[in-house]
Each structure stands twice: as structure tokens, then as C-alpha cells.
Amino acid sequence: MDDTIAAISTAPGVGAISIIRVSGTKSIEKVNSIFEGKDLTKVPSHTIHYGFIVNNTQKIDEVLVSVMKSPKTFTTEDVVEINCHGGIFTTKKILELLLQNGVRLAEPGEFTKRAFLNGRIDKLKAESVMDIISAKTDAMREMAINQLTGKVSSFIHNLRQKIIEILANIEVNIDYPEYEDIEEMTIELLKPRMKEIEDEIEHILKESQNGKIIKEGIKTAIIGRPNVGKSSLLNLLLDEDKAIVTEIEGTTRDTVEGEIILDGFLLNIIDTAGIRETNDKVEQIGVEKSKKLLYQADLILYMINQNQPLNKEDMEMLENLKDKNHILVVNKIDLQSVIDLSSYEKNHPIVYISTLEQKGIENLTEKIKEIFQLNKIDQKDLTYLTNANNIAILKKALDKIKEVKIGIEENQPIDMIEIDLKEIWNLLGEIIGETYQDELIDQLFSQFCLGK
Ligand code: GDP
After folding, report:
1. How far is the CA of 358 from the centre of ligand 1 (A)?
2. Distances in Å between the alpha carbon of 201 and those of 160, 194, 400?
3. Are strands 5-8 and 17-23 parallel, antiparallel or unpaired?
4. Across residues 349-375, what is the average pLDDT?
5. Which atom of ligand 1 is nearest to the CA of 225?
6. What three-state secondary structure class fits 98?
7. pTM above 0.70, yes or no
8. CA distance 40 to 53
């Protein structure tokens, strides 16, 4: 890690400026060797300098160079950023010059990885950098910023602190029984403390469901028999002709997807091939996909028509949907009604629409908001864990806490309980990257864009 790395940090393509970032002990010296203007090795930290990038005597580009000395930099190493003109050719040329001078091309995410390994940011914060880059809504960005500024980290740190205090207390009791002024960690004292930690973890796990909605959006599948108007609904919601609407049954051969933003929340909508028995091979694949989606989606819009009686498949599907987030969308209300859904009202939220006359769409979006309680999700104070991996780890920690509680009830010796507590402490550490495996870290950082 003591070599000096460089990468183009701005998006590839033509722009007004491009930035090449260099980090490492030799970054100032290396840039200085291709810079004409002043001696960068003599300038104060956090200053910007005008000059030219040169290849021997040949001027390559007119640039502004920022010099930031260790430790107050993103990676905590010496960092130099070259702001050059934004042509792809020129930017690459400058990078090549650096590489010829013994600087190594950074791996994807390596700047952030260095920031993490040098202790400048923890794993949660590092993950949030990627979330900021890929944010599609304000709420996504805000949540990532909260994670970056350490709100979530400090929550986990506090939990760990509480556990380490208990552990320390137990250790002292075991190793130095002669210190009578130190409170003995009895089962009675342990009980309320464990309850407190359990409540906090349960709370954040509950909240994290909202975090998932904000980060990943609500995966919504439109399902129903051929010709009920699924593609028409998707088009209407997306406001474009992405799905093909035709009158021949089974034209939505495969799934068609799109995204809409509903009050700042992302809805990924998928129009599926009609669910029905079919002999057509291509369509069959689509039908299989639809059934799979049933299990993966966060929300199912099950569509039927007002002018068609429910058939056996509809009834079966609706029965299967009872325990899922779903809406029974009754389309074509511009046509004569032949159905009575009063017996379905109890188990199925129902919305009546006409995609042809563009009626009822607002009721549908309102219903979605109601089901996910989007109005109640606080988009301002987003201290949620969003990464599925981290959520899984936290769930494991919660299971362990429950084991500890059983141990307490069963009067297990305190040193047995201590083992479980250590494990919980380690699990929480994994979330912020304090007990990490190198492989995991490499995997995480390789997901970053080059130059970040
Ligand atoms: P899909 O197979 O479920 O995707 O259905 P489509 O969206 O392709 O629609 C099938 C047919 O129903 C098309 O001819 C649409 O114009 C028609 N259609 C869709 N919505 C309505 C509606 O609200 N009222 C009426 N009368 N026809 C509709």
C-alpha cells in the first residue's frame, strides 16, 4: 500500500474539465516531475496551482493542480488532483505520463479502500460512498450521506460500547474477585442491560426495512391474464410507450421494466407476460418468469377486467396473494361491469381504474403509499442500515442476544454467557469493519468506480 496510485476520477467522456487523482507518498514528487509552473514539493498543503503538464519540453495541457498533504486528505496520504481540460485523449495522456513515471493505475475503489484501511472511514462509511454515487432520489442520497457522516456507525459503536462495558465488568469479576468496590455483574444486572441492547437492535432492524425501500425502491410486478391492460398501465405510469400494447393475446412476451418516482420513492415496475398455460416456448419462459417474480416482488398489482368474470386462475392467484403486499387492480371501468367483488374486499385492497380513459391512477398510487406507509417514512432522519449483508449480520446478533437471554433464564454460568457476548460484539464489529476478512474488503472495494 506504500506505492503511489492514480486514476481518472471524473466520468469518462468529453466535459469541461477532468480530474486525475493521485495518492501516495510520492504523489507530489511524481506530479511535480511532469508539471511546469512552480515547484510543487515546496508549496503549502491544500493549495491550488496553475501551470502546464509537460512531457519533457512538450506542453500537454494547461492545468490547475491541487496539493493536499497527509494526513488531512481523503486517503490520509499525500493527494494531488490534476484538473485538466476534459477531452478523453488529453486526460488519458496525462494519466499515461504518470504511469510512465512509476505511478500505478488504481484498482476500482482503491482510493476509498485506502481511506478505510488507513482508518479514515469505517466500512459503513465506505459503502455509503458507493450509495451516494448511485443515488437516484433525494432520499437515497440523504440516507447515504447520513451513513457517510457516521450516524449509523455511531449507533453500532454505541451498541458495541455497551457490550464491551458488560464484558469488562464480567472479566474484572472473574479475574480480580478481590476488588469489592466493582459491582458484580449478576444475572439481575445483566437482564435489563441485554433487554436494552435487544430493543435497540430490533428497532433498527424494523427501520431498516424503510431503508431498503429508499435505497432499492419498491419492486412492483404487474400480473394478470393476457389483455387485461398490464402494458397499458405500465405505459401510463411511465408516461412512455416502452411496453408494446396490442390486441393479440400474449404480446407482452417477456418482462418490460421501468422506474417511476412516487413522492420521492422509487418504484421499479415490471410488466410480466400474462400468467396462463401456454404452448408457445418464448412465452412460456416469460410465464415462468412471472411466477418467480411473484415471490421476489415487494408489491404485486394483480389486474383483472371489470367486463370479464374472474376465472379459476384469477381466483387461485388471489388466494396466493393474500399474505403478500398486493392490490387488486380492476381495469376497464369504462366498460360494462359483470363482476361483484364484495366478497374479496376483506382480504384484498381493490382499486378501480381505466387506463384507456386514464381514470383511477391517482387512487392506485395513493393505495401504494398507504400500503408501504410512505408518508410515515422519515426522509430527513435516515439512520437505517441499508446493506442486506449488514442487516443479516444484525439479525444474527439479535439471535445471539436471544440465546443469551435464555442462558440467563436457565442460570447458565456467567463465563458461558461471556462467550456469546463476545460473539455479539464481533458480529457488530463486522458491520463497521472492525473484525473484517480481507476477502470481504476486497470484494467491497472492487465494486467502486475507478478513481473513487
Ligand atoms: P396486457 O396484455 O395485459 O399487457 O394488455 P394491454 O395493455 O396490451 O391491453 C390489451 C387491450 O386492452 C388493448 O387493446 C388496450 O387498448 C385495451 N385496454 C387497456 N386498458 C383499457 C381500458 O381501460 N379500457 C378499455 N376499454 N380497453 C383497454
Report:
1. 12
2. 11, 11, 12
3. antiparallel
4. 91
5. 3
6. helix
7. no
8. 12
CA 231–ligand 1 middle distance (angstroms): 8
Strand partners, 305: 331
Residue 357 CA: nearest ligand 1 atom is: 23
The pair phi, psi for residue 34, each rounded to 5°, is: -120, 15
**CB 227 near ligand 1, within 6 Å:** yes
Residue 99 above 70 pLDDT?
Answer: yes
First to last CA, the chain: 16
DSSP sequence for 395-439: HHHHHHHHHHHHHHHTT--HHHHHHHHHHHHHHHHHHHTSS--HH
Asked if residue 356 has its Cβ within 6 Å of ligand 1, the reply is: yes
Gap between the Cα atoms of 390 and 399, Å rounded:
14
Only one residue has cell 486517503, namely 75
Ligand 1 proximity of 331 Cβ (cutoff 6 Å): yes
429 lines ligand 1 (CB under 6 A): no
Q: Report, as an integer, the average pLDDT of 277-285.
A: 55
d(CA 236, CA 242): 10
User: Are 64 and 15 in contact, with CB atoms under 8 Å apart?
Assistant: no
The rounded mean pLDDT for the chain is: 82
Q: How far is the CA of 302 from the centre of ligand 1 (A)?
A: 14
Regarding the beta carbon of 355 and ligand 1, being less than 6 Å apart is answered yes
* pLDDT of 242: 53
Q: 25-77: per-residue pLDDT in tens?
A: 999 999 999 999 999 999 999 999 999 999 988 999 999 999 999 999 999 99
pLDDT exceeds cutoff 70 at 289 = no
C-beta of 354 in contact with ligand 1 (< 6 A): yes
